[in-house]
Design brief:
Blueprint lengths: L12 H21 L2 E4 L5 E4 L12 E3 L46 H4 L12 H48 L4 E3 L5 E3 L2 H17 L2
Helix pairs in contact: 3-4
């Protein structure tokens, strides 16, 4: 004859509490012994001393030897959002007739919206006007100095070329040309010296053309 087990209804509340605590301790001990915790594709969490199946993503492995325990909820599948085809842009609604697209275009240029002519420059400030005046004044002074330097060089060249032409005319005339030597004595050029000076005068006159 089998022994009759006492029913839960006949047990005292203290006995029931001790049994519940024992069951909880056994369950906690089993979870503590589990070396691997992972979540399968269906969202079910598994506790085992065996590693998860091959191919389990690392994000679904919540516990493993050498890996700190983490609590990760399975990511919900993203909802697919259907977007309008790029070839059919949405037109803004017409405030007068919502059924038809708007026909009036908003000017992109704020100057056009204010009634200014497209491309018109904004009026200069006082500082900008002063800077522009100083710039033009400096450029004018530089141009004037440059023109004066060019005029001085041109005058020197004109004077030099005039002297070269007069010397050439004297050498070509055939008259005797006197020169003063280093000793201060006057003497006349011989034919060789005359020819040498004449060749040099011709070269300098060619540069003056």
């Amino acid at each position: 004859m089998l022994p009759v087990m006492p029913s839960l209804a006949s047990s005292s509340p203290a006995l029931l509490l001790r049994r519940a605590a024992a069951v909880a301790l056994l369950f906690a001990a089993g979870l503590a012994q589990a070396q691997f915790v992972w979540v399968d594709p269906k969202g079910v969490r598994h506790y085992s001393d065996q590693p998860p199946p091959p191919g389990t993503p690392p994000a679904r492995i919540l516990k493993a030897p050498g890996l700190p325990a983490i609590s990760v909820q399975p990511a919900a599948p993203a909802l697919a959002v259907r977007s309008a085809p790029p070839s059919t842009p949405l037109a803004p609604a017409n405030p007068i007739n919502p059924a038809s697209p708007a026909t009036a275009s908003t000017p992109a240029d704020p100057a056009a919206a204010a009634g200014a002519k497209p491309g018109a420059k904004a009026p200069q400030t006082l500082a900008e006007k002063d800077a522009d005046f100083r710039k033009r004044l400096k450029e004018g002074q530089e141009n004037e100095l440059k023109a004066q330097e060019q005029a001085r060089i041109a005058a020197q060249k004109t004077e030099h070329c005039g002297e070269v032409r007069r010397a050439k005319q004297m050498l070509d005339s055939g008259i005797r040309i006197a020169d003063v030597g280093a000793d201060g004595q006057k003497r006349y050029l011989n034919d060789a010296e005359r020819a040498q000076r004449s060749a040099r005068a011709n070269a300098m006159a060619a540069e003056c053309r």
